[in-house]
Amino acid sequence: MKRICVGRIGAPHGVRGEVKLWPFTADPLAIGRYGELFSGDGTRRFEVEALRPARDHVVARLKGIGDRTAAEALRNLELFVPRDRLPEIEEPDEFYHADLIGLTACDRAGNALGCIVAVHNFGAGDLLELKPGAGGDTVLVPFTQLTVPEIDMAAGKLVIDYEFDVANKP
Fold it and tell me: What CATH number does the domain located at 3-85 have?
């Protein structure tokens, strides 16, 4: 079962067990509609009882978390849902980052370059982390329509049109 990280719990909010929650969803309140949330190791489960927007996060009340001490114990815990609970994407050029991980990267001629191992965003746009098929260090490739002109999810591959030398890096 493929799981997707949809948020991270921050500090307690108040004394009644509410927590600051940083959702990783396009709509911050959507995290409350995905049903049961899981810890990264799958051993803990959480149900969102209430959710409200705050300045740069949301405030959540989680079932069974009734005081500040219990809320404090959850600080920095990432929350996951099964991939199949997320809504289908209707836009042809939008993707869940998790769906890109594992795709085979090829050049325009169809030669395999390696595998996508991560998607990063350091503030200036998404970057694909490519692990070369021959081994060695990973390389970062801008995830733009110009550098990644084709994505075939059904075939499990994408095309990268980007000049780089795996040995010397761009």
Answer: 2.40.30.60
**In a structure prediction context, what are the per-residue pLDDT tens digits for the chain, which is 170 residues long?**
688 899 999 999 999 999 999 998 888 999 999 999 999 999 999 999 999 999 889 999 999 999 999 999 999 999 999 988 988 888 877 888 889 999 999 999 999 999 999 999 887 889 999 999 877 889 999 999 999 999 999 999 999 998 765 554 44
| DSSP SS3 for 28 | helix
Place of tokens 């999810």: 153
Are the CB atoms for 25 and 33 separated by under 8 Å? no
**Alpha carbon 131 to chain centroid, angstroms:** 18
Specify the CATH number for 97-159; select among 3.40.50.300, 3.40.50.2300, 1.10.10.10, 2.30.30.240: 2.30.30.240
CA nearest to 22, candidates 3, 38, 42, 6? 6
**DSSP of 84-132:** GGSPPP-STT---HHHHTTPEEE-TT--EEEEEEEEEESSSSEEEEEEE
Q: Which residues contact 153 (CB under 8 A, 6 or more apart)?
A: 95, 99, 103
Give pTM, 2 decimals.
Answer: 0.74
